Amino acid sequence: MATIYYTDEHEWLSVEGDTATVGITNYAQEQLGDLVFVELPEVGKAVSKGDDTVVVESVKAASDVYAPVDGEITAVNDALSDDPSLVNSSAEAEGWLFKMKLTDTSQLEGLMDKAAYDANVA
Amino acid sequence: MKKTPFHSQHAEAGAKFGPFAGYDMPLFYPLGIMKEHQHTREKAGLFDISHMVHVEVRGPQAAALVSRACPYEAAEQAPGTGKYTFMLNENAGIIDDLIVSRLAEDRFLIVANAACAEKDVAHIRNLASGFDVAVDIIPRAFLALQGPAAESVMQSAGLDVADMAFMTVAEPNSGWFVSRSGYTGEDGFEIGLPPGEGPDFAAKLLADGNVEWIGLGARDSLRLEAGLPLYGQDMDETVLPHEAGLIWAVPKSLRESGDYVGAEALSAALKGEKKRKRIGLKPKEKMPVRGGAKLTDGDGRQIGTITSGGFGPTLGGPMALGRIVTNADENKIFADVRGRGIAMEPAKLPFVPHRYKR
Known about the structure:
The complex is a heterodimer of chains A (122) and B (358).
Chain A: E1 3-6, E2 11-16, E3 19-24, H1 26-32, E4 35-39, E5 46-47, E6 52-58, E7 62-66, E8 71-76, H2 79-82, H3 86-89, E9 98-102, H4 114-121
Antiparallel strand pairs in A: 1-2, 2-3, 3-9, 4-6, 5-8, 6-7, 8-9
Chain B: H1 7-12, E1 16-20, E2 23-28, H2 33-42, E3 44-48, E4 53-58, H3 62-69, E5 81-88, E6 94-104, E7 107-112, H4 117-128, E8 134-138, E9 141-146, H5 150-156, E10 169-170, E11 177-179, E12 188-193, H6 198-206, E13 211-213, H7 216-225, H8 263-271, E14 276-283, E15 294-296, E16 302-312, E17 317-325, E18 333-337, E19 340-347
Parallel strand pairs in B: 3-13
Antiparallel strand pairs in B: 1-2, 3-9, 4-7, 4-8, 5-6, 6-7, 9-12, 10-11, 11-12, 14-17, 14-19, 15-16, 15-18, 16-17, 18-19
């Protein structure tokens, strides 16, 4: 059973064991508007919490998505190469960005649950 | 932050606002930039452009002052027409690009970019001290209606514009100014009116099912697809008209000499070696390349800069305007995006054909 966490930087993580699927929140995609390009990281890349990991480009501007915790990229959502708008239509499911293997699961303790995140952006 | 006369209408329409040239302006509405863009190309988009400044030059020497400030023969301009031009500094750098409309024999309207308004007005007033003219800022609500349905919408709103051609102007009511022009490449109109009359007129236009409010986001993607330069990005006071691809706006007779500010410097620059030029570019990948990105040759030497770049919803891909050195090999241009060299290919401008009513 996956547990969902949220960050101040408007990312969500669905964690099962030591693997997380990461994306941006529905709130974040609404703020960005229509996405036209997503630059994904390379599989195998080691990232530290706060690293620029993904670039999402809307019609207007490019925005960074940061690594929410330390870990190694194990998969990326290739469907976004053909259809970046998946992030707009399904930010918290089909529009996921990457999967990562966590190296320090204790970092999850500082993240928010859905109720806290919703209150944060309300 | 300043608000335009349409601010509460934007808020009611669900606009997301952002600061622009000192104003709180709508960036996009619930439709989103992509659909706003397409709506404008297919039907009619309504843009609040009230942040722009209207300056009227009036008096016996009005034409003479305009011809001193801008590189064209204002005395030969037919009343009822607009002219795309600019004001140059003594080095022929572009102070601002403008449309100057001749409303009557002795009356010209200069519409200036919001961010440049203060320096423009100071420049004109400074030049005006030697001429028998009055220079006044006209407070106005200002709208642009752009797209293939624009004419029929204007007609239903009670403005008889069917006989107006591209770059003609009219004053249909007291304090009103209408031009057939715009910044999207589409047929359309710009309508200036007394601020208090603005909201009612906007409501009248919006009552037509073909019309939607369009924000600054889509305004930018539309103008870039149309290959139209933006002041502050594609030109500034360090850029000369020919370097910005705008020498067509200077009549041939004024390229070698003239009495306008910047004439000597422009003539000298045109006689000398042309150093930089504007180029349309398309990235060979899907990645948008934004303004400010460095352009390099195959060997990593900088040959220019992207001045405007983004994604074209009608084009269906990324597009950019750049300025490069004239001796560059145009088939070997790379844009530096986050440390990667993105191959670029030269593209014909405009990216999407203009549909002005000639």
